[in-house]
Amino acid sequence: MTTQLTPPTSASAPVSPADSAPALGASAAELVARRRKGYSLEGGFYTSPEIYDLDIDVIFSKNWIFVATAAEIPEAGDFVTVDIGKASVIVVRDDDDEIAAFHNVCRHRGSRLLEDKGFVGNIVCPYHRWTYALDGSLLHAESQPPTFDKTCFSLRKVHVRNLAGLVFICLAQDAPEDFDEVAKIVEPHLLPYQLDKAKVARQVDLPEAGNWKLVMENNRECYHCDGHPELISAYFPIFAYDAEDITPRLKPLYDRYTAAAEALEEKRKEQGTPLQDHMQLDTRVVGFQLSHLPLDGEGKSFAANGAAVCSKLIGEVKDAAFGDLSLHMQPNSWFHFLGDHAVVFSVMPTSPTTSVLRTTWLVHPDAEEGVDYDLESLCTVWNATNDQDRVLVTNTQIGCSDPSYVPGPYSMVEDQVEGFVNWYVTRLREHLGVEASA
């Protein structure tokens, strides 16, 4: 029998947790089948080892996952490694200046080849010294018979795409094909920032005491943005609001936003970037959202009153007051591109109840720390915001693990949370072959 998700309608008629709360021990198929549209997910989605394994196998192993910026591997031989569940992947810049990706497993007896990030001339196995070129081909394997064919033992390739400086990989044998369609839409918006030529100013990994989906859901709404005082000094906290959603309290802010949006549109025309925004979070496999938003105050960057944090504009951006190009990509990333820098985010699951948020700040390759930007000022807003969100995610993880937790309805301004959750549940439904409950 399908569990009733509707909470009690009257505070005077309490219902015991045993009668009202969905069981945390429900199977993945049950949880997926009875997910109620417009409501938050049941607690089992954030605590179940079975769901976690599905998330790795279905979401992170079969979809395009954002893993790095091209700026992290600027020269041939530069590499980073990425762990997805039990799998490890090497992402490397090869001798042709292209980005390649390989399973981080030696073709001899399976040793892990590389750790973390760094530079290599060739990829050499630390166990028996099998040696691979940067294109994955086997160069040397000692003491093999004359019949040994090196061409049969290249590193196993992983699908990789460089989207205007944003690097995505897919572990599946057949990667989702609509990435090309999305890239065609998104790339013209990103070109002025020249992310391929940018420089990494800082990268921070923040452990989260919460399931990866809670981190993503928290990002997909600004219903809670009053809790981010540093951010809303520049960021209009009306993300995903329509005009009819604006409350009297928000009306002066909305009027200021409207004027700033009109001014930004003129600058977008002068820059020659596309003017159309896009919302396709759950209508395709490679779900995404792209919007170019104004910033408050000076409209330049994430600082008090929208002031700039780097005096050298990024890429070929012509105007410092170029607002915030905001991009969300399912399932694990979001990005902000400003006139003076870019900041990119990715979330990776580490257990059913933990994850890691990586934040990377990018600046013009010629920007000098201490001259063009101060590192602390560059990172102040998002360091503070990430830490504030970390507390919110932790508290939500605790609450979703409570036996009394019952999914609640999303507000009118949480439609992008619903978009993320619907995209996610759709992927699991397709894999499990289950239909939604009536």
From TrEMBL:
Q: Does the keyword Transport apply?
A: no
Region Disordered, as annotated, extends over 1-21
Query: What keywords are assigned to this protein?
Result: 2Fe-2S, Iron, Iron-sulfur, Metal-binding, Oxidoreductase
What are the Low complexity biased-composition ranges?
7-21
Q: What is an example of a GO molecular function annotated in this UniProt entry?
A: 2 iron, 2 sulfur cluster binding
Q: Which cofactor does it need?
A: Fe cation
Residue intervals of the Rieske domain: 64-169
Q: Which PANTHER family match?
A: CHOLINE MONOOXYGENASE, CHLOROPLASTIC
Designated name of the protein: Rieske 2Fe-2S family protein
* Species this protein is from: Quadrisphaera granulorum
Give the taxonomic lineage as stored in the record.
Answer: Bacteria, Bacillati, Actinomycetota, Actinomycetes, Kineosporiales
